[in-house]
Specification:
alpha/beta, TIM Barrel, 3 domains, Fadh2_euk, Mehydrof_redctse-like, flavoprotein
Length: about 750
């Protein structure tokens, strides 16, 4: 069926004194995730009955067929009007085609956007035959389709980031005025309504709204406030930092107190959303627009808390009318995996509990590939808003593989602030394996994600703990890296001899090697908590790895190669790595660790080569033993060493061991001194306690004596005719009494 123009619905609802509700969703990363996204939209539409939903279209997409198919399904099957995003990233001829196809699909509503610059570019450059801004796109829609489409445009309560005078300074009054002029130009070109960028400072939105009216944007043009509920601490910080969104101090302080507890962060997000929305409603702004991030429970809680949840789901859905048609996306309560893949994030400090709606805690790469919210949320929304840095200053100008290896080593040393795959410094838990990781990277195994084995540590452990107090956590050792085909071949030959190691390798062309079943899902982190079932927050699985592969290889080109001029040696080198290297993950199933493996390998590499003609020390004594991941790498890497390299490695290993021994010895000495001090303190304490006891005893004796003395006059201390013994002392009280009686 054909849709309705949402501007007509909004005007109708507002005229009746009601409040409009709209929801934004973005494309899922996998086919199964897309199916579940449709199910999520279905559920939220049925329960919340929004006025309309918006479906985003990333600027890099070139084929509108899937976009229109999803929009058609949502509009036709779920009986809700759809607002589809359209950007200026295509030539005019392609935009003409897309608009006609949208009209043919029954779509009546378009959000006209310019779009973001290509990844790696600082400023927007129109494609050949394309448009420079959204004003031109609005003109095109009106020129070709008249009043058929309702056109929405974007507004920026805190100014579009490209209008800022400086990345580090707030926008000037001139910037505000210029941005408002751009918005009015879009309205004058034919826009019907405005949807704003998200904000948390409500007074700034109210001021923006008032200024829009002052410059001549008429009252019949609704300005919908866009709100992004706080779902997760890390993503909130990234969104607000990259989009330059101001955050009130009250929110900042409250978040810092609960930032490591996902459930408390989400609860705070609901609380703050309710506060902001009530403030908006109190000021007469009755058109609420939510950026859902494809997540359900927070937005639902907010709508319910505002008293806007429909008392009955009166919307007639086509799948309810025609159950026999089989149009429904999935059955209610269908199974969903409640564990999360490891690929999409370097370690987060806080993990999540196992709940029915676990994906309401979006921890980036820690998401089920079947989830509608699967993937790095920032990759979809924020990739183009990533803070601009001097990438040549950051990563240098590499001309050979070893230069690239050194960048990764320097990242682990804290001398390089970030990598395309790692936006933050290594997590604290990495310190336990830091020297091993540096050894791998120095030898061409470029690690982008890792975790050490953990065998029953408290859930409050500052380095590896998660999930709140009272639990015990476990994890398998894991490492993910890029390497050349030659290095992978040698590594696989050795891994095939160690059944505790599972691996999956894939290149940019999709050629892959693995020693695991394709459908296997491998839990690599889990915990035991009182009164709860086993919690398994992270997994490794082939579907997730396949989806992550595309993004991981893309970053070589979009983030690193584009730092150098076309045709330069550095750019060609990064392209060569992108084209030939493999992305590999390895899991050590023996999470408890083979206690002798490391010692055996360390001993083996210390063996002197038998003669000058024998460059390599064969580590045959490790065959068929359960090597841990890093012992495996040492075995493989040192096998290719020359005598000098092997001697240097053994010397470095010995120095590290001696350093560790010295540290342990120093700690033991400190412990010994502390123990002596504790013994002295205990002795002193015992003496003090004895003195206190003696004093108490003496005080007790004196109180008793005083009591006896007070009662002696009434009992007659010296009887009549009785004389005091020689040398006897007459008590003062008695003496006074005698004197008074004299």
């Amino acid at each position: 069926m054909g849709g309705r123009k949402i501007i007509d619905t909004i005007h109708s609802v507002l005229a009746e004194g009601g409040t409009t509700l709209s929801l934004e969703f973005f494309p899922a990363k996998t086919e199964e995730g897309m199916g579940n996204l449709l199910a999520r939209i279905e559920d939220m539409v049925a329960r919340l009955q929004p006025t309309f939903v918006t479906l985003t279209w990333r600027s890099a997409f070139a084929d509108e067929s899937l976009w229109l198919k999803i929009g058609g399904i949502v509009q036709r099957e779920f009986s809700v009007d759809v607002l589809l995003h359209l950007t200026c990233h295509l030539p005019r001829a392609d935009l003409v085609r897309v608009l006609q196809n949208a009209r043919d699909a029954g779509i009546r509503n378009i959000l006209a956007l310019r779009g973001d610059p290509p990844i790696g570019e600082d400023r927007w450059q129109p494609v050949p035959g394309g448009f420079s801004n959204a004003v031109e796109l609005v003109h095109l829609i009106r020129e070709l389709h008249g009043d058929h489409f309702c056109i929405a445009v974007a507004g920026y309560p805190e100014v579009h980031t490209e209008c800022w005078n400086s990345p580090d300074l707030p926008p000037s009054e001139q910037s505000f005025a210029q941005d408002l002029t751009f918005l009015k130009d879009k309205v004058d070109a034919g826009a019907d309504l405005v949807i704003t960028q998200f904000f948390y400072d409500v007074p700034k939105y109210i001021s923006f709204h008032d200024k829009c009216r002052e410059i001549g944007i008429p009252a019949h043009i609704p300005i919908l406030p866009g709100y992004l509920p706080i779902q997760n601490y890390a993503s909130f910080r990234k969104f607000t930092s990259w989009c330059k969104t101001s955050v009130p101090n009250t929110i900042d302080k409250a978040l810092e107190k609960v930032k490591d507890e996902d459930e408390q962060v989400k609860a705070l997000g609901v609380q703050e959303a309710l506060r902001a929305c009530r403030q908006l409603l109190d000021h007469g702004h009755r058109t609420l627009h939510f950026y859902t991030l494809n997540l359900e429970s927070t937005v639902t809680s907010v709508v319910e808390g505002l008293g806007l949840l429909p008392k009955a789901n009166l919307r007639e859905l086509s799948w309810q009318r025609h159950k026999a048609s089989g149009n429904r996306v999935r059955a209610k309560g269908g199974p969903a995996e409640e564990v999360r893949p490891i690929f999409w994030a370097n370690r987060q400090t806080s993990y999540v509990s196992r709940t029915n709606d676990w994906d309401e805690f979006p921890n980036g790469r820690w998401g089920d590939s079947r989830s509608p919210a699967y993937g790095e949320l920032s990759h979809y929304y924020l990739e183009f808003k990533r803070p601009k840095v001097d990438r040549q200053m950051l990563w240098g100008i590499p001309t050979k593989h070893e230069d690239v290896y050194n960048v990764f080593v320097r990242f682990l040393d804290g001398k390089v602030g970030s990598l395309p795959w790692c936006e933050q410094a290594p997590a604290p838990e990495t310190s336990a394996i830091s020297s091993n990781l540096k050894f791998l990277n120095a030898n061409g195994y470029l690690t982008i994600n890792s975790q050490p084995a953990v065998d029953g540590r408290p859930s409050t452990d500052p380095e590896v703990g998660w999930g709140g107090p009272g639990g015990i956590v476990y994890q398998k050792a894991y490492v993910e890296f890029f390497c050349s085909p030659d290095k992978l071949k040698v590594l696989m030959e050795e891994m095939d001899r160690h059944p505790n190691l599972s691996y999956h390798a894939v290149n940019v062309k999709g050629q892959e090697y693995t020693n695991t079943r394709s459908a296997r899902v491998n839990a690599v982190t889990w915990g035991v908590f009182p009164g709860r079932e086993i919690v398994q927050p992270t997994v490794v699985d082939s579907v997730s790895f396949g989806a992550w592969k595309d993004e991981a290889f893309e970053l070589w080109l979009t983030q690193w190669a584009t730092a150098y001029q076309e045709g330069s040696l550095s750019r060609m080198l990064i392209h060569e790595i992108h084209d030939t290297f493999y992305l590999v993950n390895i899991v050590d199933e023996n999470y408890g660790g083979d206690k002798t493996a490391i010692a055996e390998t360390e001993d083996a590499v210390r063996l002197e080569h038998k003669s000058e003609g024998n460059d390599v020390t064969r580590l045959e004594n490790t065959v068929n033993r359960h090597l841990d991941i890093f012992s495996l790498f040492k075995c493989v890497i040192t096998r290719g060493f020359t005598s000098d390299q092997l001697f240097h490695f053994a010397s470095e290993t010995q120095r590290e061991s001696e350093h560790l021994y010295a540290v342990v010895k120093e700690l033991k000495a400190i412990n010994h001194d502390t123990a002596n001090e504790n013994r002295m303190l205990r002795t002193s304490l015992m003496q003090t306690q004895q003195e206190i006891a003696d004093i108490k005893s003496e005080l007790k004796r004196l109180r008793i004596q005083r009591g006896l003395d007070l009662i002696k006059p009434t009992t007659g201390f010296l009887h009549s005719g009785q004389h005091a013994a020689a040398g006897a002392i007459t008590p003062l009280v008695a003496s006074n009494t005698i004197c008074k009686n004299a």
